[in-house]
Design brief:
heterodimer, A: about 220 residues, alpha/beta, Rossmann fold, 2 domains, six-stranded mixed beta sheet, B: mainly alpha, MetI-like fold, ATP-binding (chain A), ATP hydrolysis activity (chain A)
Chain lengths: ~220, ~500
C-alpha cells in the first residue's frame, strides 16, 4: 500500500456538522501540516484519520497526550511497543523493567532532555515535560505514520525544535496539526489549511510563506 | 424548610421508625444488666493478656482467614469487573453479595464441615460480588484517552494492565485496603459459627465468664485494626499472602459424600423428595411463608427501619467529634479514637455482647447496628465537613452546627445513610442467629432442625429483600439527586 486516502468523509457533533465532506490523499513519505484556527476541525480530522488508519501502524499523539499519570515516564514510553512483545513480557515489565528496554529508552529521554525523570510518575510532571514523554512514546513506537495534534504546543523555542526534528526524522509520513505557522512550514512538505470544517488551502510548503496562511486566522 | 423533598423524606423515615418502635419488642430481660456491663468494662480496663497462646491463635487465625478470603475475593472480583457489562454477571454479583458472610458460612458448614475452606469461601464469595461491582465502577471512571494511543495489535491483557488498571490503581488500592479492614471484621465474626477466629474465642470466654480475657481479645482486635496502616505495607503484602493459607489451621477433613448429598437431597424441598409433586410443593411453600418467612420479614423490616433512623441520629450527633470546625470542645485525638472504636466493632459482635448483658429483645440489635453504622457515617461526614471553609465570622457552637455545617452536610449524609440501608438490613437479618426473631433466626432454626431445604428458601428470600431495599435506596438517591460514586463509599 502506497497512498493513504480518505474519501468524502464527514464528522458530526450532535446534529451539527463539524467537518467535511472532504477527501485527502497522503503519499508515503509525505509530511503534512494541518493549520487553521482552533475549533475549525483539525483535531476532528486527525481523529477520523486515526479511526480509518489505526490498523496500519499509526502512532497517535493526541492533544491530551494520553499518558497514564500513575505510571512512570519509562512505562509510558514503553507503551509504544506493547504490541511487539508477548503479554507475559509486558506484565513482567510493569513490575520490573528489563535492562535492555531501559537501555533503549534512556537515549530517547536524553535527547528530549527528560532522562532525569525516567522513574517519575508522569502525573507529577509539568505540561512541557509531559508533552515530551508523549513524543518519546511516539518515537519509541517506530510506526509507519504519525498523527500528532499540537505536538510542541507546551514547549518553548529550542525545545520545540529538538522535538520536531526528532519526530520528523523518525516519521517520514506524518500529519501534524500545528498552530505555529513558521514551524509548520519548516518541518513539513505540504500544508493543508482548514476553515469551518473544509479544506481551503492545499499546497507544497516551499511555495508558501507565513503571510499566505494568515487568511486562515 | 418543610418544602424541601430531602426534609420531607427524612421526616417520613422518622415517623415510620417511631411507628415501628411501638410494634417492636424492646426490653431488658436480664436480671442484673448493669452489673454485667460493669464487669465487662472492668475486663476492658484490667485485661488479662497472660493466655498468650490462646490470644495469639485467635488473632493469627482471624488475620489468616481475612487475608485469604479478601485476596481471593479481590482476584475473582477483578476478573468479573472486566465482564461486568454482561447482565448475567451483574445479576449474579448482586445476588451473591446480598447473602451475608455468615449465611454463606452456614451453608458451607453443612457440606464442608469445619474445614478452612468454609471460612475462606464464606468471605471470598460475597466479597467477590462487591469487588466486581466497585472495581467495575472505578475502571469505568478512568480516563479513556490512553487506551486510544495504545498501538494496534496490543493484547487485551497488556492494554488493560497498562491503561485502565494502571490509571485506576490508586483507587483500586485504597478500596481494597478498606475492604481488608471489613474482611478482618467478617473473619472475626465467622468465629461465632465455629470457625477458629476471634468470635469463637470471644464466645467461649464469655460463656465461662472470663471477662478479663474478653477485654484482652477486644483490645487486641482494636489495636489490630487501628494499626492496619502501619503493618500492611506493599512490600510486606506478598509475604502475608503467601503465609496466610498455611495459617488457616487444619480443621476437620471434608467428607465428599456430604457434599453430594447436600446438593442432591438436603436442599431439595421435602415434598419433592417425598414425591408429593407440585401441589405438595405449593402447600409446603405456603406454610413456610405464613409461619416463618412473613414473621421474619416483618421483624427484619421493623428492626431495620428503627436501626436506620437511630443510626442517622447518632451519626449527626457524632460527626463534630472529628470535625475541625468544633476543635476545643473535644480534643481531636480522643474524638478520633471514639469513632475508630465505634466503627471497627462489628455489629454482630456488639449485638452478641449486648445480648449477653441485657437478655434477648430487639434493643441490643438496634443499639449494636446504630453504634457501628453511626460510627462509620459520622466518620465519613466528619471528614467531609473538614473540606468546608467557613467564613471568618461564622457563628460558633450549636449555631455553627445547626446553621452552617449540618445543612451543608445533609445531602452527603443522606447519600451515605441510604447506601448503608441495605447493609443494615443484611446485618439485621443475620442478627437473628443470636435469637432475635428476624429472618436469620428462622434460617438458623431450620438448620438446627436439619431442614436445609427450608433454610435455603429463607436465605433466598432474605437476599431478594436486600436487593429490593438496594433498588429502593438507589431510586431515592436519584430522586433526591444525591450524588454517589464508587469512591464516595466508605
Amino acid at each position: 500500500m502506497n497512498a493513504l486516502a480518505l474519501n468524502e468523509i464527514v464528522a458530526d457533533y450532535g446534529t451539527q456538522r463539524v467537518l467535511g465532506p472532504l477527501s485527502i490523499t497522503l503519499a508515503r513519505g509525505e509530511r503534512v501540516a494541518l493549520v487553521g484556527r482552533s475549533g475549525t476541525g483539525k483535531s476532528t480530522l486527525l481523529g477520523v484519520m486515526h479511526q480509518h488508519w489505526h490498523r496500519q501502524g499509526v502512532a497517535l499523539m493526541p492533544q491530551e497526550l494520553g499518558l497514564v499519570p500513575s505510571l512512570s515516564v519509562f512505562h509510558n514510553v514503553f507503551m509504544g511497543r506493547l504490541a511487539r512483545q508477548p503479554t507475559w513480557y509486558n506484565l513482567a515489565s510493569l513490575v520490573r523493567p528489563f535492562r535492555h528496554d531501559v537501555a533503549a529508552i534512556r537515549p530517547l529521554l536524553e535527547r528530549l532532555g527528560i532522562d532525569d525523570k525516567c522513574w517519575t510518575a508522569t502525573g507529577e510532571l509539568s505540561g512541557g515535560q509531559r508533552q515530551r514523554v508523549a513524543a518519546a512514546r511516539a518515537l519509541y513506537q517506530q510506526g509507519d505514520l504519525l498523527l500528532a495534534d499540537e505536538p510542541v504546543s507546551a514547549l518553548d523555542g529550542p525545545l520545540s525544535e529538538v522535538v520536531m526534528t526528532a519526530l520528523t526524522q523518525a516519521y517520514p509520513t506524518a500529519v501534524l496539526a500545528m498552530h505555529d505557522v513558521e514551524l509548520a512550514l519548516r518541518f513539513t512538505e505540504r500544508v493543508i489549511g482548514i476553515a469551518d470544517g473544509a479544506i481551503v488551502i492545499d499546497a507544497p510548503s516551499r511555495t508558501l510563506r507565513a503571510q499566505d496562511l494568515l487568511v486562515l486566522y | 424548610m418543610w418544602h424541601s423533598a430531602t426534609v420531607r423524606t427524612s421526616l417520613g423515615f422518622v415517623v415510620l421508625a417511631v411507628a415501628c418502635a411501638f410494634l417492636a419488642d424492646f426490653r431488658i430481660t436480664a436480671h442484673d444488666p448493669w452489673g454485667e456491663l460493669g464487669r465487662l468494662f472492668l475486663g476492658l480496663i484490667q485485661p488479662d493478656f497472660t493466655a498468650v497462646d490462646y490470644l495469639g491463635e485467635a488473632i493469627l487465625r482471624t488475620l489468616a482467614f481475612a487475608f485469604v478470603g479478601v485476596s481471593l475475593g479481590a482476584l475473582v472480583g477483578m476478573g468479573l469487573a472486566l465482564v461486568f457489562h454482561h447482565r448475567t454477571v451483574r445479576t449474579a454479583c448482586a445476588f451473591v453479595r446480598a447473602i451475608h458472610e455468615l449465611f454463606w458460612a452456614l451453608i458451607f458448614l453443612q457440606f464442608f464441615g469445619l474445614h478452612p475452606l468454609t471460612g475462606v469461601l464464606a468471605i471470598a464469595i460475597p466479597y467477590a460480588g462487591v469487588f466486581a461491582k466497585v472495581y467495575a465502577e472505578i475502571l469505568e471512571e478512568s480516563d479513556p484517552e490512553p487506551s486510544r494511543v495504545i498501538p494496534h495489535g496490543t493484547g487485551v491483557v497488556s492494554a488493560l494492565a497498562y491503561t485502565r488498571i494502571s490509571l485506576a490503581w490508586p483507587h483500586l488500592v485504597s478500596y481494597t485496603s478498606y475492604r481488608l479492614e471489613c474482611g478482618l471484621r467478617s473473619s472475626a465474626v465467622l468465629g461465632f459459627v465455629g470457625m477458629p477466629t476471634l468470635g469463637f474465642y470471644l464466645e467461649s470466654s464469655f460463656s465461662q465468664g472470663h471477662y478479663a480475657t474478653v477485654g484482652a481479645l477486644l483490645l487486641l482486635f482494636y489495636v489490630m485494626i487501628a494499626t492496619l496502616g502501619l503493618w500492611v505495607r506493599p512490600r510486606l503484602l506478598p509475604l502475608y499472602l503467601i503465609a496466610a493459607p498455611f495459617l488457616l489451621g487444619s480443621g476437620l477433613p471434608i467428607r465428599w459424600q456430604n457434599v453430594s448429598r447436600f446438593f442432591t437431597e438436603d436442599i431439595v424441598p421435602a415434598p419433592l423428595r417425598q414425591g408429593e409433586g407440585l401441589t405438595g410443593l405449593m402447600t409446603w411453600l405456603g406454610e413456610l411463608f405464613a409461619t416463618e418467612a412473613l414473621p421474619g420479614i416483618w421483624n427484619t423490616l421493623l428492626l431495620t427501619q428503627v436501626a436506620l433512623v437511630v443510626t442517622g441520629i447518632l451519626a449527626l450527633a457524632l460527626y463534630p467529634l472529628i470535625s475541625r470546625h468544633f476543635k476545643g470542645r473535644v480534643s481531636g485525638a480522643l474524638g478520633h479514637t471514639v469513632l475508630v472504636i465505634l466503627r471497627s466493632t462489628p455489629e454482630y459482635l456488639l449485638a452478641f455482647i449486648l445480648l449477653q448483658l441485657w437478655g434477648p429483645s430487639m434493643l441490643p440489635a438496634v443499639v449494636a447496628l446504630a453504634i457501628h453504622n453511626g460510627g462509620i457515617i459520622g466518620h465519613l461526614i466528619g471528614r467531609r465537613s473538614n473540606e468546608i471553609a467557613l467564613r471568618q465570622d461564622a457563628p460558633r457552637g450549636l449555631e455553627r452546627y445547626a446553621f452552617e455545617l449540618t445543612p451543608r452536610l445533609y445531602g452527603p449524609f443522606l447519600a451515605f445513610l441510604f447506601y448503608r440501608w441495605e447493609i443494615i438490613m443484611r446485618e439485621t437479618a443475620i442478627l437473628g442467629i443470636l435469637g432475635i426473631a428476624t429472618l436469620g433466626f428462622y434460617v438458623d432454626s431450620a438448620i438446627q432442625e436439619i431442614r436445609f431445604d427450608r433454610a435455603l428458601v429463607l436465605i433466598v428470600i432474605t437476599a431478594l429483600l436486600n436487593i429490593g431495599v438496594d433498588i429502593l435506596a438507589r431510586w431515592l438517591r436519584s430522586r433526591l439527586r444525591l450524588r454517589h460514586t464508587a469512591t464516595s463509599e466508605p
